[in-house]
């Protein structure tokens, strides 16, 4: 493996700026890494044909003395839910196979403008519906820690690409945990920003009131650097916040000193008992809290009585919004079309959606359509929205007592591929700690907290902050990351056996 692929985005950016390495060299190293390992990992659905040309242009502009962005020349992986003009955008579905968008998603356009080099599009559960990336129409992605296990979902491709050193950073999307849960099971960092803090324009919609684009990386600083590039107001997105955001990279650098932990009030939810979690996950979580407490943090028990109803509310709200958003895939406007000789438009539409959508998408569309139907709207969708409001109030009351809330990022380590694919309820419960964050619209970050004793697989700790306090999460996340990495004696990913490490 090239030394260039082992560098963090921040370190690689420093070397590029200093002229110690060219963007072409860095990009070629990552393309070589993809060629070497992605046949096993399957993190990418499409690898760019233009990456080296883009990198060469960055090198030319830098040589000419042009002032470039801090991450200029750094390679970037892009979740296939984000549309791009130069690569297919399928959202992991057959119904969009080969689709070429006439425009870039705002976050992609901003990344290009900042000089990042798109490497390719990463695999995902179809239309972001899943917690394992097994529901991709193009086959599952494999966890670099154990190729027989899932890399999380729906953004398992982005997390696996970063964990396998195929890309230093990636773009993901998080509707109920699809950045943070893959980070948990792959030993990476995943940040779900405040709702509206990063543009959703050009992100193929699943549930518009829940979807949020965010960064995937190997360090908190790298996520912050990418967040600085993609964040901010976008007039193309009606839900985009007009706030003037601080530098998240500056917040992460400030947090790395560890001083932020002194006097930090960390909330632990009383209604989230250890009994619902794998023992190794609970043990790692408690150990991380103990380390924070030893560094000066105060651990405070807080109550969030409606937290436990988040999954039920989510799986009414999400399918309802998905059934509306996916109505556009009707065989008429774009996407695949199945011809039905002598059939009506309705016949063609039915045949196309039957052939183009996978089982999980069909399951959720049917559920959502039912929840919105006459006579059931108030009983199901309306009630779920009321629960959503109660969860938001729980967070408001908790944040009146603490600075951040901490939870395990997911209940278990990575499970075996195929283990839960036929049990959707168990799959849905895997997002029990991440879903309330999306329902409330607040930011959440998952960072590695260690390895579970029983299977040696990575687990993460999630920190949640009030809306618009994304910088607080970067400060706390970087402080805890520094604390834990020092305890481990080096980055957790260095111990992944599939990547040549030992654990």
Description:
By secondary structure, the chain is α/β, with parallel strands linked by helices. The chain has a single domain (3-267, 400-499), classed as Amidase signature (AS) enzymes, CATH 3.90.1300.10. It is built from 17 helices and eleven strands. It has helices at residues 3-6, 9-18, 23-41, 51-63, 106-113, 156-163, 180-186, 220-230, 248-255, 279-294, 310-325, 345-356, 359-372, 378-399, 424-428, 435-440, 470-488; strands spanning 44-47, 75-79, 117-122, 169-173, 189-192, 213-217, 265-269, 298-302, 404-408, 444-451, 458-464. An eleven-stranded mixed sheet has the order 1-3-2-4-6-5-10-11-9-7-8, sandwiched between helices. Strand 7, helix 10 (279-294) and strand 8 form a beta-alpha-beta unit. The mean pLDDT is 95.
Backbone shape: globular
Low-confidence stretches: none
The proportion of strand residues reads: 5-15%
- DSSP E strands, number: 11
CATH superfamily: Amidase signature (AS) domain
- The H/E string reads HHHEHEHEHEHEEHHEHEHHHHEHHEEH
- Averaged pLDDT: 95
Say what the CATH topology is.
Answer: Amidase signature (AS) enzymes
Helix tally equals 17
Characterize this entry briefly.
One of its GO terms (molecular function) is glutaminyl-tRNA synthase (glutamine-hydrolyzing) activity. This protein has helices spanning 3-6, 9-18, 23-41, 51-63, 106-113, 156-163, 180-186, 220-230, 248-255, 279-294, 310-325, 345-356, 359-372, 378-399, 424-428, 435-440, 470-488; strands at residues 44-47, 75-79, 117-122, 169-173, 189-192, 213-217, 265-269, 298-302, 404-408, 444-451, 458-464.
């Amino acid at each position: 493996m090239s030394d260039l692929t082992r560098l963090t985005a921040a370190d690689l950016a420093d070397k590029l700026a200093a002229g110690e390495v060219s963007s072409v060299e860095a990009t070629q190293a990552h393309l070589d890494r993809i060629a070497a390992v992605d046949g096993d990992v399957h993190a990418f659905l499409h690898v760019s044909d233009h990456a080296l040309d883009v990198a060469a242009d960055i090198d030319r502009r830098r040589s000419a003395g042009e002032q470039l962005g801090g991450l200029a020349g750094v390679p970037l992986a892009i979740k296939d839910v984000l549309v791009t003009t130069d690569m297919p955008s399928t959202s992991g579905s057959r119904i969009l196979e080969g689709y070429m968008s006439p425009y870039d998603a705002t976050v992609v356009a901003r990344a290009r403008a900042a000089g990042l080099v798109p490497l390719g599009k990463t695999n995902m559960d179809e239309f972001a519906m899943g917690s394992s990336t097994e529901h991709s129409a193009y086959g599952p992605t494999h966890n670099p820690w154990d190729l027989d296990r899932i890399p999380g979902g729906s953004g398992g491709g982005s997390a696996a690409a970063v964990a396998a050193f195929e890309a230093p950073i990636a773009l993901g999307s998080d509707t109920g945990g699809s950045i943070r849960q893959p980070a948990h099971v792959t030993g990476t960092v995943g940040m779900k920003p405040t709702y509206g803090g990063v543009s959703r324009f050009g992100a193929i919609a699943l549930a518009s009131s829940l979807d949020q684009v965010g960064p995937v990386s190997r360090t908190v600083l790298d996520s912050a650097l990418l967040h600085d590039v993609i964040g901010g107001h976008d007039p193309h997105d009606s839900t985009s916040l007009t706030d003037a955001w601080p530098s998240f990279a500056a917040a992460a650098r400030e947090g790395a000193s560890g001083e932020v932990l002194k006097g930090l009030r960390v909330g632990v939810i009383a209604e989230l008992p250890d009994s619902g979690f794998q023992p190794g996950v609970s043990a790692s979580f408690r150990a991380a809290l103990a380390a924070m407490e030893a560094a000066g943090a105060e651990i405070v028990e807080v109550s969030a009585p409606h937290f436990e109803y988040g999954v039920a509310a989510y799986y009414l709200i999400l399918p309802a919004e998905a059934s509306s958003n996916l109505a556009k895939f009707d065989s008429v406007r774009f996407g695949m079309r199945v011809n039905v000789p002598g059939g009506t438009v309705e016949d063609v539409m039915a045949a196309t959606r039957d052939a183009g959508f996978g089982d999980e998408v069909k399951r959720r569309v049917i559920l959502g359509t039912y929840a919105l139907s006459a006579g059931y709207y108030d009983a199901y969708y309306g009630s779920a929205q009321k629960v959503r409001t109660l969860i938001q109030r729980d967070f408001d009351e908790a944040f009146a007592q603490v600075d951040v809330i901490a939870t395990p990022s997911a209940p278990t380590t990575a499970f075996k591929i195929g283990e839960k694919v036929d049990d959707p309820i168990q799959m849905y419960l895997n997002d029990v700690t991440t879903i309330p964050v999306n329902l409330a619209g607040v930011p959440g970050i998952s960072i590695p907290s260690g390895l579970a004793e029983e299977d040696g697989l990575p687990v993460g700790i999630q920190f949640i902050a009030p809306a618009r306090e994304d910088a607080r999460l970067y400060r706390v996340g970087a402080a805890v990351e520094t604390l834990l990495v020092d305890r481990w004696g080096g980055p957790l990913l260095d111990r992944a056996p599939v990547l040549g490490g030992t654990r």
